[in-house]
């Protein structure tokens, strides 16, 4: 029974790697099979995608507690009290590290948001450029930190997996781990930040980062304040009320981010005819959008909207046949690139 449930969960994750419930089903199946470590990693992934999932947080706490008890028992402690004290100290230290890392990431994200807003109001080109760079660097730091919290620090085994995959000798499980990381939203944001560091400062480039940070700040603030004591109820209520205004509109914000990504692509094409041209940035950004189209439903919807509007213009009855032929060739070429990437993934 659990084998079938695990297979269904893995298939669900393969279709949509950002679907938190897929990882929750995987964790439940692994827990039923007795794979506590695998279930813990799956629940951590659920919380990285949906930090407000209280059920996943409770299950993760329970499994980590059970794992701590088993480790203490297997270690041959001479006293049960000693084992409990050691487990409590370890849990307390882990909790403090989690708090510290999340506070650092929260500060970095707020720093990025503030400097993104400063770009609007600063009149000096030099200061505006510096604010743009600081906003990108802070966002890059926060997304990298979130990826580390989700997947851990890269190790020698990580490089070994990548080398085996490059040589075509990686196992299906290793390829799956690499694919999950490559399709993760944080990975896309890290790549996007690294690209924009080489771009000319532009307010348009900051729009996706601003809204991504706003969503992440809201989730992280709620997660951090949820464990505050009773005397901080007023702070918890205020943070929750502010965060709900953002998280309640998250689907709309996600669609806005996807629309901005498409708009940025066309802006980069237009910049080819100006002194701000950056051909390498356009090519790499196009590859990022290609992946986003495959794994992100909002990105696919944004491109389909663009396609329907361009069809109404270039395939109009009064449009010259030469333009129709050229447009259809370009459209079929783009569709071929996307389908090729989908088959490879």
TrEMBL record:
Record's Gene Ontology CC terms? endoplasmic reticulum; membrane
Keyword Flavoprotein present in the record's keywords: the answer is no
Major localization class: membrane
Q: Name one GO biological process term.
A: membrane organization
> Which domain of life does this protein belong to?
Eukaryota
Which residue spans traverse the membrane? 99-123, 135-153, 189-211
Q: PROSITE patterns in the record, alphabetically?
A: TPR
What is the annotated localization of this protein?
A: Membrane
Q: Per UniProt, what is the membrane topology?
A: Multi-pass membrane protein
Q: Cite the SMART domains for this sequence.
A: TPR (SM00028)
Q: Does the keyword Transmembrane helix apply?
A: yes
Which positions are tagged coiled coil?
none
Compositionally biased residues, Polar residues:
71-80
TPR repeats mapped onto the chain? 20-53
What UniProt keywords are attached to this protein's entry?
Membrane, TPR repeat, Transmembrane, Transmembrane helix
Under the heading Pfam families, the entry gives:
TMEM33_Pom33
Q: Which family does it belong to?
A: Belongs to the PER33/POM33 family.
- What protein name is recorded for this chain? Uncharacterized protein
């Amino acid at each position: 029974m659990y084998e079938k449930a695990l297979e269904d969960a893995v298939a669900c994750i393969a279709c949509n790697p950002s679907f938190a419930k897929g990882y929750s089903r995987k964790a439940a199946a692994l827990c039923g099979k007795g794979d506590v470590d695998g279930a813990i990693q799956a629940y951590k992934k659920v919380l990285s995608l949906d930090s407000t999932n209280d059920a996943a947080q409770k299950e993760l706490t329970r499994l980590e507690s059970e794992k701590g008890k088993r480790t203490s028992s297997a270690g041959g402690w001479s006293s049960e009290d000693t084992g409990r004290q050691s487990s409590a100290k370890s849990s307390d230290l882990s909790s403090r590290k989690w708090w510290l890392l999340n506070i650092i990431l929260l500060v970095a994200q707020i720093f990025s948001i503030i400097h993104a807003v400063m770009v609007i109001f600063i009149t000096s080109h030099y200061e505006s450029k510096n604010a743009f760079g600081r906003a990108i660097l802070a966002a890059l730091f926060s997304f990298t930190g979130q990826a580390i919290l989700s997947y851990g620090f890269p190790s020698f085994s990580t490089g070994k997996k990548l080398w085996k995959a490059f040589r075509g000798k990686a196992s299906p499980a290793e390829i799956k781990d690499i694919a999950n990381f490559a399709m993760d939203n944080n990975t896309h944001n890290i790549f996007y930040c690294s690209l924009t560091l080489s771009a000319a400062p532009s307010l348009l480039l900051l729009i996706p980062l601003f809204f991504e940070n706003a969503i992440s700040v809201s989730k992280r603030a709620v997660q951090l304040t949820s464990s505050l004591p009773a005397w901080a109820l007023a702070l918890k209520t205020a943070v929750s009320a502010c965060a709900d205004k953002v998280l309640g509109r998250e689907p709309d914000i996600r669609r806005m981010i996807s629309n901005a990504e498409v708009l940025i692509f066309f802006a980069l094409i237009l910049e080819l005819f100006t002194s701000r041209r950056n051909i390498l940035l356009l090519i790499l950004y196009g590859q990022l959008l290609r992946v986003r189209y495959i794994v992100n439903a909002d990105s696919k919807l944004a491109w389909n909207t663009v396609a329907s509007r361009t069809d109404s213009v270039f395939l109009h009855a009064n449009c010259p046949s030469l333009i129709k032929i050229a447009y259809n060739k370009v459209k079929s070429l783009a569709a071929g690139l996307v389908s090729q990437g989908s088959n490879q993934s």
